[in-house]
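The records we work with from here on pair a chain with its fold. Each token is a code from a learned vocabulary of local backbone shapes. A record is reproduced here so that you can trace the correspondence yourselves:

_____
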Amino acid sequence: DATVIGTDLSPIQPDFAPPNLRFEIDDCCSRWTYDEDSFDFIHVRCLYGSVADWPAFYQECIKHLKPGGYIEQLEFSVVPKSDDGSIVPGDMWDQCGRLAVDSSERFGKPLQVVDKMARWITEAGFEDVTEKRYSWPVGPWSSDPKLKEMGKWNQYQWEEGLEGWSMALLTRVMGVGYDHDSASGKD
């Protein structure tokens, strides 16, 4: 019988939830208000681009986990890569990924935490840190049925999300102009 607390900055959570789950509006980047040693498990997912001081965040995590507790984190690389070498340095996808990394670093909330989080978690004092990396295709090109299905959903995520992920960083941080009519195909 676990009690699960989900936190977010905005009240965007669904109305349907299991009875053991409650959502709270909270900022994980601020000092935590929970009692120390109060959690058995902390799950972190997709906070890349949201945290300015990851080492301080992990210090909050370790301080609020009970002795023997676990942290689990899932993040994604924002720099597309290919297993077959089809994405090469300097091509469009490489440039987009590098632009995302550069703009997020200028903004002060890095997107490319996937390459540093195991080290930061270890430096915070966690023991027996394990890192696993997986390929996640964009598009249904894989011959593996599971990866093909994942690729379809990931392509949809990219198609629907790319503008939202990029707009603030490109316009506010990098100074790129934006014309809504041109972007939507209206001339």
Summary: Helices lie at 54-64, 92-107, 117-123, 145-173, 180-183. The two ends are 58 Å apart (CA to CA). The first helix runs from residue 54 to 64. Residues 26 and 33 are 9 Å apart (CA to CA).
